[in-house]
Design a protein that fits this description.
Among the domains are: 72 residues, Helix Hairpins, CATH 1.10.287; 58 residues, SH3 type barrels (Roll), CATH 2.30.30. The protein contains seven helices and five strands, in the order H-H-H-H-H-E-E-E-E-H-E-H. The radius of gyration is 27 Å and the shape is elongated. 10% of the residues are buried.
Length: 189
């Protein structure tokens, strides 16, 4: 009976309850403020990329990626504050990331190639190119593929990895378009 009274001692329960309640409140605050900070960080990145005329698809993807990664860190911090051992959670997330990365290896290489094409501006929409054995006018540059229209009028979708892993020929514009453009290095008087 004495052990039972110690177990339900109001002072001990109150101390543990206050401690746990404070931890839960702190974790909720971490989640709330962290979510706001993650949105601000992702939005700032998005605005910077939009000002530099980065492709809208890439901007949206990077916004979501940055927000999701920051939220993972915030959730881990909140769980730590409550007292949850997050070591195994971090291990599971890392293993899942590795498994997903291996499963999507081809898609990730196409994604990386798409980012390179967009950022390095090898060619743009409207350019006539030859890449990956295909020739045509570029009508769309997407994250995973580039869409061409060949001479027969057929839409050809070429994986970005196939484009960047081989030689890319960008054909010159018609002579009348070239005549209107100043030569490289020429200065207006």
């Amino acid at each position: 009976m004495d052990n039972l009274s110690q177990w339900f001692d109001l002072g001990v329960l109150r101390a543990k309850g206050i401690s746990l309640g404070g931890s839960i409140l702190a974790a909720a605050l971490i989640l709330l403020l962290g979510r706001i900070a993650a949105r601000i960080a992702a939005s700032t990145l998005s605005r910077v990329l939009q000002r530099s005329h980065t492709d809208a698809t890439l901007v949206k993807f990077l916004y979501n990626l940055v927000y999701a990664l920051l939220m993972v860190f915030i959730v881990v911090a909140a769980l730590e504050k409550v007292g949850v051992n997050t070591t195994s959670f971090i291990g599971v997330v890392a293993a899942a990331g590795l498994a997903i990365g291996l499963a999507l290896q081809g898609s990730l290489s196409n994604f990386a190639a798409g980012v390179m094409i967009i950022l390095l501006r090898y060619f743009g929409v409207g350019d006539r190119i030859e890449a990956a054995g295909q020739t045509g006018r570029v009508i769309d540059i997407q994250i995973f593929s580039t869409v061409l229209v060949n001479d027969e009028g057929t839409r050809v979708i070429v994986p970005n990895n196939a484009i960047t892993s081989a030689t890319i020929k960008v054909f010159a514009a018609p002579a009348e378009e070239l005549a209107e453009q100043p030569a490289a290095g020429a200065h207006a008087a």
